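I have been asked to look over a protein record a colleague put together. Alongside the sequence sits a line of tokens, each denoting a local backbone shape. I have pasted the whole thing underneath without changing anything:
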Amino acid sequence: MKTKYTLLGTFWVILYCFLVFTPLLILILGPGQVPRVPLQNISVGLAFIGLAIMGLQFALTARIKPIERPFGSDLVYHYHRQIGIAAFLMIFAHPILLFVLSTGYLSLLNIFTSPLRAKAGVLSLLLLVGVVWLAEFRSKLKIPYWFWKIWHGIIAILTMGLAIIHILLNGNYINLPWKQQLWIAYLVVWVLLLVYTRIIYPIKLMRNPYQVVRVTPERGSSSSLRLKSIKKSSFDFHPGQFAWLTAWKTPFSDTEHPFSLSSSAEHPEQIEMTIKKLGKFTTSIQEVKPGQQVYVDGAYGSFSCDRYPQATALVLIAGGIGITPLMSTLRTLADRGDKRPILLLYANRDWENVTFREELEPLKQKLNLKVVHILEQTPQNWSGETGFITPEILNRHIDSGMRQAEMHVFLCGPKPMMDAVGKHLLAVGIPPAKIHSEQFAF
């Protein structure tokens, strides 16, 4: 499986680089209508690369599973954000370098007197500034996610369309038919990706609705939702993955929420999500009734032991509700009769709120499993670990036998806890390549 993901990931990286740098052929091949100054070529080249990257952003967020599968959703979304900022800087450098080349270009900023090609370019750049600014500060501005997501796509496609108009009306670099056709093809692909994401894919989800089978209260202000496909289709996934859940509305509403799957991957006919009360949606979702129709999009994510079949020992580290993907792992391995040594370090505030506390004990009979609870607030006569997960606790429970094996660590929980434990794992000598984590935020 690792080789398969490596080959698929390599293919996507090569294709991505090809699509990003293909527009540079416009600069290299064919004659220009007027002599080109090197700084002008650099300016246009950066803009072409940045625009190609911006267009490919649609593919990164379209949830095309073959694209997401080799890398995982965390990495894809992180790359989407970082490369978007880089592309913005490349495009923004285009007019700046032109102004350095000649102050005469400054007159083009006046959209009332400038030619149409300049108007399109200036408006495109202003919209791009808006897209990036809103993406970076949406949370601080308290803009609802669904509202932002809809307008993010609309403004982005307007930005790209105006940019293409700007390019087509500037004849010096696209004075050959094939160059014009290339940029038109890029725009068509971008529009098709947006149509797929906003129209075709939601329709696909609506054609396979799910039904709530039961809602089971759990410790830690959590509840487990058991779901099944109304069409009785199988929801194939790997332990540790997550899915997007839409309730009370259709997939067109953009009100979906990501939750880890907590059930065994060996029983894909019905799935479970264990959800903790942390906000308006997570509180109301626990009030759904059996029989209610919902929509599920998945599975996604690379946080799975199945991606590392070479592992001969597993260390699972959970904080609070971060136990959910690791519970899916334990349930799956128990159903498979897995005999590898497994260590679960489970940190919680107090004993009464330890989610799945009762189920962990019988799992020790089915697996070669050691469970270590770490509590901040301990009950009377507590003899276990207290406080937070420290290097001392890690060294105390990750024995030499596990260290000598092909051991892989899976870490999930609140971000501060994950940041701290990640540093502790490195401090006790665990190689970064063997530490895998799942963030509960994009």
Remarks:
- The first helix runs from residue 2 to 21.
- The chain has 14 helices and twelve strands.
